[in-house]
Write a structure and sequence with these properties.
Elements: H1 16-27, H2 31-34, E1 37-38, E2 44-45, E3 49-56, E4 59-66, H3 70-89, H4 96-109, H5 113-127, E5 133-134, E6 147-151, H6 158-164, H7 167-188, E7 190-192, E8 200-202, E9 208-210, E10 216-218
Parallel strand pairs: 5-9
Antiparallel strand pairs: 1-3, 2-3, 3-4, 4-6, 7-10, 8-9
């Protein structure tokens, strides 16, 4: 479990020339021309991309860049997964076809960072009504379908927080996360469908930062 947990925030990085090409295609210029500074060594991994530190208009930002060809890979994997789900649910009360369609829709939506930018703005408005919660602000002029730029938030990862925090701090953070997830669901009919440990940061002042809204859903 400890080994697999590394996949929540670190993977093998893309080559520099690949990063340069994707930024050029999405933002119309090289990283050097689109940002005041840009660190080509990623400091974190996201679900389907990697995250670079940069500066834009005198503030620290995080630039998430999508892995090339990831949508095609996901579509292929999801076709196989859908077949497996259908087979496993045959003869049960579970609607395997509906389950597979929901899974496919939610995961493929993650490939559109423009959609994630809009969702991030929505969740930021909903979550930051409470001072114990933080959502990074999107930098729209440096975001596109495969590049998403937000303000950079420095905090402890879930693993590091669990290792170093007191029980009181852990209890407080647990309450913040639990309350945020269910209050947003029942009061605002919205749900972040990817609430794994890699999508939280724990700040020195006791706040919890909520990251990555690529897989989310609204309800009636």
């Amino acid at each position: 479990r400890r080994v697999l947990a590394q996949l929540q925030d670190s993977t093998e990085p893309m080559a520099r020339e690949v990063v340069e090409r994707i930024v050029e295609e999405e933002l119309g210029g090289s990283p050097a021309s689109r940002f005041d500074s840009f660190d080509h060594t990623p400091f974190a991994a996201a679900s389907i991309g990697q995250v670079h530190a940069a500066r834009h208009e005198d503030r620290e930002v995080a630039v998430k860049i999508q892995y090339p060809g990831i949508e095609d890979v996901l579509r292929s994997d999801l076709r196989m997964a859908s077949m497996m789900v259908s087979l496993m649910t045959t003869g049960t009360v579970v609607d395997g076809k509906a389950l597979a369609e929901e899974l496919t829709t939610r995961i493929l939506e993650e490939c559109d960072y423009r959609r994630e930018a809009r969702r991030s703005a929505t969740f930021r408005r909903l979550l930051e009504t409470d001072p114990s919660r933080k959502v990074p602000e999107v930098v729209a002029e440096r975001s596109a379908t495969r590049v998403l730029t937000t303000e950079r938030i420095d905090g402890l990862s879930f693993r590091r927080f669990v290792q170093t925090a007191t029980q009181e701090q852990k209890d407080r953070a647990g309450v913040v996360i639990y309350d945020a997830c269910f209050r947003i669901l029942f009061e605002n009919a919205a749900f972040n469908a990817d609430p794994h440990p890699g999508n939280y940061l724990f700040l020195e002042d006791g706040r919890v930062a909520f990251l990555d809204f690529g897989c989310a859903r609204g309800f009636d």
